[in-house]
UniProtKB/TrEMBL annotation:
The keyword Transmembrane helix applies. The chain crosses the membrane at residues 21-45, 65-86, 98-117, 153-173. This is Transmembrane protein-like. InterPro entries: Tmem135. Keywords: Membrane, Transmembrane, Transmembrane helix. It comes from Tropilaelaps mercedesae. Coiled coil: none annotated.
Length: 247
């Protein structure tokens, strides 16, 4: 966890507010600092062309980017305050400390942070890692049945879930991870007929361009055909003609 509060800290008073302010400041400063470092080449290029430095910095730190940094800082500060506050309250109420206090504290803190920073990518990764950690913990404590190659199968199942999400809603997964999955699967991601998936109601076309031959209009094929055959039937043909580029 990000920060912890000692047992002698109280929920009321300045220590909690000081820590929340510190988390908020570090999050906002780190976000803006990374944005500045990533845009340093563009800033130098614009300055060499004769543009004013203040104008160039204004384009880098535009209002929407500042709002994102502030929302991130508020989310992390809220997470820290909720987690530490609930943990401290449970310790003082029960007059002892216990590892399970982290469960309700982290759940409430996660919901509070997600309300301020609704990131589907972080949610998917956190869910998959949590399920895998629970399985490995259960195996270590002999609480779940042990099967041959169980950890490998669990990891493969999690990768399958991420691959499915990457096919249906690819903007929920980082493009670098989609590219990694594409490589280990023998470029199968590039051979998916994204038009069929988009016409079925998903927004995969937000990331991948639709390449639909005129001979197969989605308005004249059945839903069962789209769900069973259409996604892969034109794989080889489309892959030979052109590889689907990522937008």
């Amino acid at each position: 966890m990000f920060l912890t509060i000692a047992d002698d800290y109280q929920i009321r008073g300045h220590p909690m507010m000081t820590r929340c302010a510190l988390v908020f400041s570090c999050a906002v400063g780190g976000s803006l600092g990374l944005r500045l470092l990533s845009s340093m080449g563009r800033i130098m290029s614009q300055v060499r062309k004769g543009n004013a430095l203040t104008t160039t910095l204004g384009r880098v730190f535009y209002p929407k980017g500042m709002s994102v940094a502030v929302d991130l800082g508020l989310a992390l500060a809220t997470f820290s305050a909720a987690f530490n506050g609930i943990s401290c309250y449970l310790r003082r109420t029960e007059k002892r400390d216990a590892p399970w206090y982290a469960i309700p504290s982290s759940v409430v803190a996660s919901f509070a942070a997600y309300w301020l920073w609704p990131s589907q990518r972080i949610t998917i990764y956190a869910l998959c890692n949590t399920l895998y950690d629970f399985y490995m913990m259960g195996v270590a404590k002999q609480m779940v049945p042990t099967i041959p190659h169980g950890p490998n199968l669990a990891f493969a199942s999690i990768c399958a879930v991420i691959f499915s999400v990457g096919g249906i809603k690819p903007h929920y997964i980082r493009k670098s991870y989609v590219s990694f999955i594409n490589r280990i699967l023998g470029n199968r991601v590039d051979r998916i007929n994204w038009s069929a998936i988009s016409h079925a109601g998903f927004d995969s076309a937000r990331v991948y361009k639709e390449n639909l031959p005129a001979i197969l209009n989605p308005d004249y094929v059945s839903t069962r055909y789209m769900q069973t055959m259409w996604v892969w039937s034109l794989a080889d043909y489309m892959y030979k003609i052109h590889k689907r580029p990522v937008v």
